[in-house]
Amino acid sequence: MTHLKATLAAVILIGTALGSAAQAGAPAADLTISFTGIAEQQGAVLGAVFDSEAAYNGGGKPVRTIMVAASKAEVAAQLNGLAPGTYAIKAFHDVDGDQQMGTNPFGMPIEPFAFSNNAQGQMGPAKWADAKFDVTPGTNSQSIIIR
Amino acid sequence: MSDLDRRQFIATGLLTGAALITPDMALAGASPPDWALGVADVEADVPHEVLQLVMGKVPAGLAATLYRNGPAKFRRGTGASGHWFDGDGLVRKFRVADGRATLVARFVDTPKRRLETKLDAIVQPGFGTGARAGSVVGGPDDANASNTSVLMAGGQLLALWEGGSPSVLDPETLATRGFKTFRRDLKQMPFLAHPRVEPDGTIWNLGGNGEGTFVWKLHPDGSLAQGQMISVERNSYFHDFTATARHLIIVLQPWVQEGFSFPLSEAMRWRPELGTRVLVIDKDDLTKRRTFELPAFSFFHLADGWEERDGTIRFDGCLEADPIFGQRGASALLRGEYVKAPSPMLTQIVLRPDGKADMQTTRIAAEFPSSDKRVAGQARQFTTHVTNYRGPFPHGIAMWDWSRGRDDRFDFGDQQLVEEFLFVPLGAGEREGWLLGTTLNLAERKTELHLIDAAHVAAGPIATWRASLPLPLTFHGTIG
């Protein structure tokens, strides 16, 4: 099992950086992210938004973080003032509200998680290439099924 | 053969795909061997049916349910599982009561089976199967085949794998209810297919191979009593462990994981120079442990152990000189190939109070050891096992008598592949009762259920029932 542990332990590392303000001078882009399929209506959905493959793969901090109460089967987060560009999101349902991705004694994730585009990983997080999406000036949306 | 003939032959061979035939397959012949029925696919659940009594008479008052589990779907689209251990679990329920026998069988409805059905392809990784395009593994239970054994606990039938959680089945309908979560933080945890059950119903099990393993202790109702990670200090593969009334016994064979890759069967290395180590752990204090060193052997299965007054511990197992069967033999079966591997030999291991250990072989090729569960952890005289291997599978069933050093054995013949038999007690003694088990009849192309008097195994079945269809070979079962 160690092989799975090694890869899955790193599945979702949510950055602790707080969402930064939109960069001055950038054209406005807004993103609505809906999270559906929330089975247990407690705790919160936590997400991290990355703007580069390097950051997404653990080499940098997210440009925004998300925290939205998981009070319904479907909840949404609104991110305003994003710089247009390519992004990817890692999210998980923090069912027990400890603001950490719960793991079992072998380090396996035990709280539901998901990625933008509903990309799925194989013994690890979904790849940037599968999870990335474009944010253009104006309104944008992304729907993520938490499971 | 002239050069021209040879060129022609080779060209024809390439066109017909003969170039893909390996030497093993060439030896086995071009057409699939008869025993391939033992690893054939089942396409659908088996509805409830009354079995045909083909021989003998059913003893009055016999009422028993035999649940069995084994892989039964290995091939989808143009692909196939890489290993016998990786097919989808088909749980079979044989019920003998009121003088008749019935069968119902259902596949465990796992995420793996759902995904592979949707894709019509084998994509999920396993013991001897690499992940393929389309694979989705967010956690071990996404690859869970629930195909190895069954355990009845607290009114739930649990279908066991080893790398992930048990699947919960309805013991009546065999409908899948999802994965068993013993505690919120113990989702996606490994749970071996060989729990050791004390006579009072307390269940011990291990989870996970490698340096760290999780010790499970469950109440008789299947709820968690305690769970704890321990280090065994060696990356050994173990499919099974054993126990006495007071101790857990973990046998650390030198088949070890080095590095991370799939499939596991190919990633693990055989390092005989390390020898085999036996770890004896106090059930009441998992930090109290002793180690014993033995010459290198490989194994899959052990039988219940016991402890004598002076502290000597005895248990038996089916020991192999090396793990070629698990590494290559069990993969080759799915291609209809027979790779010769060292026979598993029924052997008693003796751990002495002075720290010395030794092995006493019966010189009998044996697998699927079982015994009277009423004396689990206590001294016993008999071990039931399959035997008489001809080709890759056994053709006989036997009870080994450790006191007299002899087998009471019945050979079902070349046309029967024999599966695990389990003891159904009637009186107080270890032979006062029946052995209930299944075979695959290759001549009839049907699965059979047999009842044998445990005191007269050599006399053969006292009753035999036949199903309407052949089911591939199972691994393990339980009497419900």
Model description:
The complex is a heterodimer of chains A (147) and B (480). With 147 residues, chain A is mainly β. Chain A has a single domain, classed as Immunoglobulins (Immunoglobulin-like, Sandwich). In chain A, 12% of the residues lie in helices and 36% in strands. Chain A has three helices and eight strands; from the N terminus they run αββαββββαββ. In chain A, strands 2, 3, 5, 6 and 7 form a five-stranded antiparallel β-sheet that branches. Chain A is globular, with a radius of gyration of 15 Å. Chain B has 480 residues and is mainly beta. Chain B folds into two domains: 31 residues, no CATH class; 448 residues, Methylamine Dehydrogenase, Chain H. Chain B is built from five helices and 35 strands. In chain B, strands 1-7-6-3-35 form a five-stranded antiparallel β-sheet, with no helix packed on it. A five-stranded antiparallel β-sheet of chain B has the order 2-34-33-32-31, with no helix packed on it. In chain B, strands 22, 23, 24, 25 and 26 form a five-stranded antiparallel β-sheet that branches.
